[in-house]
Amino acid sequence: MTTHTAQPGKGELRGRHVLIAMLLFFGAIIAINVAFSIVAVRSFPGEDVKRSYLQGLNYNDKLAERAAQAALGWTAGMEVLPQGANAQLKVRFADKEGRPVESLAIEGKLRRPATTRDERAVTFIAEGDGVYVADAGIIAQGAWAFQGAATRGTERFEFERRMTWTPPQQP
Questions:
Q1: For residues 139 and 168, what is the distance between their CA atoms, to the nearest angstrom?
Q2: How far is residue 120's CA from residue 142's CA, in Å, rounded to a whole number?
Q3: Nearest to 152 by CA among 100, 99, 101, 104
Q4: Which of 10, 94, 105, 162 is the most exposed, having the fewest neighbouring CB atoms within 10 Å of its CB?
Q5: C-alpha closest to that of 148 among 116, 111, 118, 114
Q6: In whole angstroms, what is the distance from residue 98 CA to residue 56 CA?
Q7: What is the spatial distance between Cα 122 and Cα 146, in angstroms, rounded to a whole number?
Q8: What is the pLDDT, as a whole number, of residue 48?
Q9: CATH 2.60.40.3340 fits 74-165, yes or no
């Protein structure tokens, strides 16, 4: 026969133990939520589209512009090429029949898809045969988005392209 010699109060779960456990548990959850909230607020720069409310009100005008653009029948093919250490953007415009579209003035901006921190304007020059090129400078590796507009007289063609850039390896 064995005798148990337990110390009184040793190993018992008391009210203060439960209180401490609950405070630690909920304290950890609150600390993690605060940390995630701080990271989220610091990483989101705010409104991506300026004056989005007014753009929503003028959405019918935007639909009319898109219909006029669709009636043009233009297409824009874009590629990113290495030019030394820089990136070169090359856009080729064609009409409904596949003929090159000449005499365009092209403006655009290159930016990261999730932020406007690395946004830069690019200027295109005509290379001929519907091809226009722009030097984007040295850009970091990763995902980029291009938003551009080509105009000729009263005709306007807006386009967007997403791309992934990997800088060339230097020997």
A1: 11
A2: 15
A3: 104
A4: 10
A5: 111
A6: 34
A7: 10
A8: 64
A9: yes
Nearest Cα to Cα of residue 120 among 129, 132, 109: 109
Report pLDDT digits (tens) over 55-95.
888 889 989 999 999 999 999 999 998 888 889 999 999 99
Q: What pLDDT shows up at residue 147?
A: 94
CA 99 to chain CA mean position, Å: 32
Domain coordinates in residue numbering, the chain: 74-165
Place of tokens 């989005």: 52
DSSP state of 7: P
C-beta separation of 138 from 87 below 8 A: yes
Antiparallel, parallel or unpaired: β 155-165 and 131-137: unpaired
The answer to whether the predicted template modeling score (pTM) of the entire model surpasses 0.70 is no
Structure tokens at 133: 């090129």
